[in-house]
Amino acid sequence: MTTTPAPGQCQFATATEVITPPRPIRLACTGDFASTSTGVHDDQHVRVLALQAIGGQVLLWVSYELLFFDRALNRALAEHAHRRYGIDPVHVTVAAVHNHNAGATCGYNPGAATAEYDALLVERGIAAIDTAMAHLRPGTLELRRTDIDLNIQRRVVTDGVASAGPNEGAPRDTELVLLTVTDASTSQDDSATLAACVVVWACHPVFYPELTTLSGEYPARLAHLLATDRYGCTPLFFQGAAGDARPRATIVDGAFARRGFEVIDQFARQVGDEVLALLERPGTPLDLDPTGVEFTVELPLSTLTVSDYQALAASGGPGNPTATNAQLRIDDHASRPEVATLTCTLVKLSGPEPVWLATMSGEPCHDIKELVRAEVPGPVVFIGYTDSTIYVVSDRMIAEGGYEVSSAVSFGHRGPLQPGVDARISAAFRQAVAVLT
């Protein structure tokens, strides 16, 4: 006789590996782009959660404490998972927490990244996947969500023109999502042991505590706090639509400012308190049985002139991605792609009330998440930062300008995005939904 699995029943395992660079390295994005690390405040990690439907397919969640990485890292991990374990690549989610005091990696830091460190990232990610897949055990998967008010919109629009600054009350991604796994393999006294907690929230880690010190910033400190409070729990952090959101704790006298590690600790504790409070609320069991699709969205670019690149190259110091990439574009602008290509996935977790996992490369802003939510017929868990493509901005933002729009050259592109982003992203996710329903 076949026994019907209880709601949320699954197999799971977690694993963690240290990815702190073993020797001094250029820092990714602290504002002093030419700086080399002189110290380590706290180790950086890659964390993995493997989830398997009873008798079914595996989902892999991989969170790196890095600013960005090139898509080659995603492909290497997905290819390994498929080759060794038969895992569908569309079920492998690899994303960066976007901590700015991380080491430089391929994809965003021309001239600063090293092949040695990029190889270490692949090696440690594969090791974490292998460890997790070797230790699957029974558990229960649940979903919880709420909204919290610890981030703030960082674009101020005056007379239709955007500038950087705190914008109280403006829309931003305030949703806090938790995916939790309780361990069913422990003794009866420990039957409710929290073994894994995936935190999805949108907020730039931009405290810039020290310009030459490696740190996982507030996402890493949040992980430390949750692991300490819930013995045996492995927390994983993923950014939502964080492209236009900053921590409220970085505001000083009405403007954004650098803050130290003490403030980072306080902020992480605030976020942690919100997570712990949400854990006290009942969760909704999730049945896995995932089906998904990977697709790309091509976003046309407005090409800058050689004179524009020359001006940008002269505007920044050594190592600044805008200046460095602008100098590169002077020589090869005619041969560069005329589009920025987003890699996206949509995975449907089947059940009485399906939940959808949507992922997107680059730095998606709040408007973009809302476009996706409008196309998906059910609750969406939205994750960005799956590679270093570009700031993903809406048509409204393109008209307003501002840093997020003009920074396309920092990512190696010929120029900013053209209008038409909204329709292209909406159509792509609409088509993905049609494939899965």
What does this protein look like?
By secondary structure, this protein is α+β, with helices and mostly antiparallel strands. The protein contains 10 helices and 22 strands. It has helices at 71-85, 115-133, 217-229, 261-279, 306-315, 321-332, 366-375, 395-400, 403-406, 421-436; strands spanning 9-18, 39-40, 45-53, 58-64, 92-96, 137-147, 151-158, 161-167, 175-183, 194-201, 213-214, 234-239, 245-247, 251-252, 255-256, 284-285, 290-300, 339-349, 355-360, 363-364, 380-383, 391-392. The strands form 6 sheets. Strands 1, 3, 4, 5, 6, 9, 10, 12 and 16 form a 9-stranded mixed sheet that branches. A 4-stranded mixed sheet has the order 17-18-19-21, with helices on one face. The longest helix is centred in the N-terminal third of the chain and has 19 residues, at 115-133.
